[in-house]
Write a structure and sequence with these properties.
The chain has helices at 5-23, 65-85, 93-110, 157-170, 178-197, 207-218, 243-250; strands spanning 29-34, 37-44, 50-54, 57-63, 119-125, 134-138, 144-147, 150-153, 222-229, 238-240. It is of the alpha+beta class.
Length: 251
């Protein structure tokens, strides 16, 4: 196949369709910079999908649990090796993504004789000094999108674009409070679920429709949310939100 480029291209396209079909119903992950940190939020019926990476970094994902865990351990291991061999200040999300995650993901995608990684990641880093917040959306083929205010990862690129447009319209120029960020993230997540289930997208659901969808889902699953809190007194800025904190924001 390697000496027949057209067959390789066809294999890659088939691979893309295979991955997207399995990611299609995944629970969207939303990241929003708020006034004192970064919120990462999704909804899950089982294991957590938002994890700490290093002092000022977190990662969340859509995809196969085994592939999520493989990449989670990869970025955590690389972060701690960097921090031990150099210094904590040298551990940046830019290095972890560009020299750790994306080469691994791209290689897995391009190697058509082995299984691909069925996963999309949202990796976030809390800014400091002259370094702004970083929100990396990492696709299953290794392509990345970088934002400073908000980002989203879903089961398809089309839905990514729809939810990014929604977030752009509903986010002000200044970072919101944590409560506002949670509410916006939940509405964005609900819109993603609505688009996933809709056989044909005709019109945008109302805010009441989105809230009704949120309440319906909370009867079947739980919100998995965590923040990187710039005001935390410890070196680790990661904190998982409690059920009570989240419910207060959704009343």
């Amino acid at each position: 196949m390697l000496d027949e480029p057209y067959r390789w291209i066809e294999a890659i396209e088939n691979r893309r369709e295979y991955i997207e079909e399995r990611l299609q119903t995944g629970s969207p992950v939303v990241g929003i910079a708020y006034e004192q940190g970064i919120l990462s939020l999704t909804v899950t019926a089982g294991e957590p999908k938002v994890f700490e990476v290093y002092d000022r970094m977190a990662v969340s994902a859509v995809g196969h649990p085994a592939d999520i865990d493989k990449l989670r351990m990869q970025i955590i291991d690389m972060a701690h090796v960097e921090g031990f061999s150099k210094s904590q200040a040298d551990v940046t999300l830019h290095r972890l993504v560009n020299f750790g995650l994306t080469p691994l993901i791209k290689q897995a995608f391009d190697t058509v004789f082995s299984s691909p990684l069925i996963v999309k990641l949202l990796a976030v880093e809390l800014g400091q000094a002259r370094r702004p917040n970083q929100l990396y959306a990492i696709n299953y083929d290794g392509e990345t999108r970088i934002h400073q205010q908000h980002s989203v990862v879903t089961g398809s690129e089309e839905m990514d674009a729809e939810l990014m447009e929604y977030l752009g319209k509903h986010m002000g120029a200044e970072n919101p409070s944590l409560e506002e960020a949670i509410r916006t993230a939940m509405r964005t997540w609900a819109l993603g679920r609505h688009l996933t289930r809709a056989e044909e997208f005709t019109e945008m659901p109302t805010e009441d429709d989105l809230w009704a969808s949120v309440q319906e889902q909370l009867d079947q699953a739980q919100i998995d949310a965590a923040v990187l809190d710039a005001e935390a007194s410890t070196s680790s800025k990661f904190r998982r939100l409690t059920e009570e904190e989240i419910k207060v924001c959704l009343m």
